[in-house]
Structure formats: structure tokens, C-alpha cells
Specification:
Blueprint (H helix, E strand, L loop, with lengths): L9 E3 L2 H13 L4 E6 L5 H13 L2 E6 L19 H11 L3 E3 L3 H4 L18 H4 L3 H16 L3 E5 L3 H13 L5 E5 L19 H6 L2 H14 L4 H15 L4 E8 L13 E9 L2 E8 L1
Parallel strand pairs: 1-4, 2-3, 2-5, 3-4, 5-6
Antiparallel strand pairs: 7-8, 8-9
Length: 286
């Protein structure tokens, strides 16, 4: 492995050098933690890197804007990309390697395999983004096979995604531990997201209402209230604030993602809504 500036992560764009680096760490007995991202890094991503460094010896961050998880009318072409800025942030965060394959490396000519996670990937965001979770499960499985980490970290903001990945890893007997990390928020409660940069100034002022409504409903559910009326009131409150459409606001079992009316074991309150052209998602534990 060529010498590198210890303050800068290895920047790897081809699978051979990635596997060479990982094999070297393995021979040295070092644990490896993967943080998969689509770039446009923000403090939420950097918190994942910090957590990776706290629980493992080597932190690998993948940056890949995955075309197979975007629908034909979604924002693949305009999704923010700035690898140079991302690498600078990763250097400051202490990442050991950045894995930044291009589309041809991830999906070579003739690629024809897809992973489907039935049930968990079909409702909520899956109902509005056909094929999305198949794309997620496929690319994450490839990343896990490429890096072969001991642990992979995912933010809980994308809670359905986290559960889909956990099920795929379990069902396919992949030798990796999947850990969720609590959502990082702005001071006003807005969940950090690369897509937040799409929000206009007035929309940014409204956006924290999503988390505020979720928190209020979760508190009421925690005191024994039933979900039905609270969810309908929450949808009306979001619509009055300017969210349009509100795609869903639902209470689901935290493990199975099945609908529940009153939580008797860990549950999640999940929402997705548009604010202008920006689709926001969020969830809170109940």
C-alpha cells in the first residue's frame, strides 16, 4: 500500500486497491467500520464517522450516488455532488478511507442482479418510490461485499431503509453487524439531510414543524392515546403549515413495520411530506 498523508483518508476508486487496503488492515488485526453515504456530507454524516472511529480501528466511508434507487422523476441528476469538499470533511473527521466508485465500477456492463426485500420495503416510502428499496438493498449488499466491514452504520432518519438493510443482511447471512445511529438534528429539530439544501428560506422556517408534530403525537401515544385521531390531526396540521402533499404519517411496529393503533412494544412514528419541491422524511421512537 503506498504511503499516504496520515491526516487524509485513502481515496479509493477501484475495487482492487480497496480490497488490498482492507486486507492489510485485516492482517494487522484491525476492525473495520463502514459508513455508506451518497456524499454531500453534513454534520450528521460526520457524526457517523466519529462513531465509527469510536467503535472500530478503521473507518471507511463510501460515497456513491446510486442511480438504481432513484425513480425516473426523482432528483438523481440534481442530487448534490462535491467529492473534493467531501474528502476535505472526511480528513477533518479522521476517516481512514473514502471509497468512491463510479457507476461503471458498481454496475458493470451486463449487470442484471437485484435484491428485493418483501414486506418491509413495500409500504411507507416504498409505496411512493417503486423500486427504491430494491436499489438500496442491492447497492448496500455490494458495498458490504466490497469493503467486508465488521460493522456498518446507518442513520435512523431513514428508518425504513435501516430495517430493510437489517433484513437483507440477516436473510443473506452476511457477516456484518448493522447498527443504527440516532438522527442528528439542527437546533430547531429539523433532521439533517443532504436534501435540506433544496429548501428556500421560507421553507426552511417551516420545515421543523415536521419533527414538532411527530414529537407531540409521540408524547400523546406514550400516555396511552390511540393513534387514529392523532394521526389525522397531525396530517391536517402539517397541511396547514404548508406541507403538500403529506404522503404518510403512520405508527408502525419498530421491527416489522406493521401498522399499530396503540404501541405495546417499541414502535416508530414515521412521516414523509413535500415542502415545495423538497421531500422530507422523519421519524421518532414511541
Amino acid at each position: 500500500m503506498p504511503p499516504t498523508d496520515p491526516a487524509s483518508p485513502l481515496h479509493l476508486t477501484e475495487l482492487g486497491p480497496l480490497r488490498e487496503a482492507v486486507a492489510g488492515w485485516r492482517r494487522a488485526g484491525e476492525s473495520i467500520v463502514l459508513v455508506p453515504t451518497m456524499g454531500a456530507l453534513h454534520p450528521g454524516h460526520l457524526a457517523l464517522v466519529a462513531h465509527a472511529k469510536a467503535i472500530g480501528r478503521r473507518a471507511v466511508v463510501s460515497i456513491f450516488v446510486n442511480p438504481t434507487q432513484f425513480g425516473p422523476s426523482e432528483d438523481f441528476s440534481r442530487y448534490p455532488r462535491d467529492v473534493a469538499a467531501d474528502l476535505a470533511l472526511l480528513a477533518g473527521a479522521g476517516a481512514d478511507a473514502a471509497w468512491t466508485p463510479d457507476v461503471a465500477a458498481m454496475y458493470p456492463q451486463g449487470f442484471s442482479t437485484r435484491i428485493e426485500v418483501a414486506g418491509l420495503g413495500e409500504g411507507l416510502c416504498g409505496a411512493y418510490r417503486p423500486g427504491h428499496f430494491s436499489g438500496v438493498a442491492t447497492v448496500v449488499t455490494k458495498l458490504l461485499n466490497q469493503v467486508r466491514p465488521d460493522i456498518a452504520l446507518f442513520g435512523e432518519k431513514d428508518f425504513q431503509q435501516l430495517q430493510v438493510i437489517r433484513r437483507a443482511v440477516r436473510d443473506l447471512d452476511l457477516a456484518v453487524e448493522i447498527r443504527g445511529v440516532p438522527t442528528i438534528r439542527e437546533a430547531d429539530g429539523l433532521a439533517l439531510s443532504s436534501r435540506n439544501r433544496y429548501l428556500g428560506p421560507e421553507e426552511r422556517l417551516v420545515a421543523p414543524r415536521l419533527q414538532a408534530v411527530l414529537a407531540r403525537i409521540a408524547a400523546a401515544l406514550g400516555e396511552g392515546a390511540e393513534a387514529g385521531r392523532l394521526l389525522q390531526e397531525g396530517i391536517r396540521e402539517l397541511e396547514a403549515a404548508g406541507f403538500n402533499p403529506v404522503q404518510y404519517l403512520e405508527l408502525r411496529d419498530a421491527e416489522t413495520l406493521e401498522r399499530v393503533e396503540r404501541p405495546v412494544r417499541p414502535a416508530r412514528l414515521l412521516a414523509a411530506a413535500y415542502l415545495g419541491r423538497t421531500r422530507l422524511i422523519d421519524n421518532v421512537a414511541v
